[in-house]
């Protein structure tokens, strides 16, 4: 199973250079251990969750959404596949 989540920053601070690179670093740090297990991939405003079993998939998606909420990031369900 696979989930792709698309994010769109709503605020980029004036004077911040390399804002996309900065956002990528934030995303990588937030889900680092999930990336290391190769269940999750992140590229700027996209998070892809891919597992072989549905039970495992649900747990990983739940963990990703929990970490997003803890860091004041939100998912728009219309943008999820």
Verbal overview:
By secondary structure, the protein is α+β, with helices and mostly antiparallel strands. Helix content is 42%, strand content 17%. The chain contains three helices and three strands; from the N terminus they run E-H-H-E-E-H. It has helices at 19-30, 32-36, 54-70, and strands at 2-6, 40-43, 46-50. Strands 1-3-2 form a three-stranded antiparallel beta sheet. It is globular, with a radius of gyration of 13 Å. The model has no long low-confidence stretch (mean pLDDT 77).
Entry summary:
The chain has 81 residues and is α+β, with helices and mostly antiparallel strands.
Strand content: 15-25%
Low-confidence segments, given as residue ranges, are: none
Please summarize the sheet with the most strands: 3 strands, antiparallel
Q: Which structural class do you get from the secondary structure elements?
A: alpha+beta
Radius of gyration: 13 Å
Shape: globular
Strand order of the largest sheet: 1-3-2
Helices and strands, in order, run as: EHHEEH
- Report the end-to-end length measured between terminal Cα atoms: 11 Å
Helices and strands, with pairings:
Elements (H helix, E strand, L loop, with lengths): L1 E5 L12 H12 L1 H5 L3 E4 L2 E5 L3 H17 L11
Antiparallel strand pairs: 1-3, 2-3
Which descriptors apply to this entry?
81 residues; alpha+beta; three-stranded antiparallel sheet; 3 helices; 3 strands
């Amino acid at each position: 199973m696979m989930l792709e989540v698309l994010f769109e920053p709503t605020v980029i601070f004036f004077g911040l250079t390399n804002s996309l690179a900065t956002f990528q670093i934030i995303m990588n740090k937030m889900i680092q251990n999930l990336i290391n297990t190769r269940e999750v991939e992140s590229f700027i405003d996209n998070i892809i969750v891919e597992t072989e079993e549905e039970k495992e998939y649900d747990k990983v998606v739940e963990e990703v959404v929990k970490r997003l909420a803890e860091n004041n990031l939100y998912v728009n369900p219309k943008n999820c596949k």
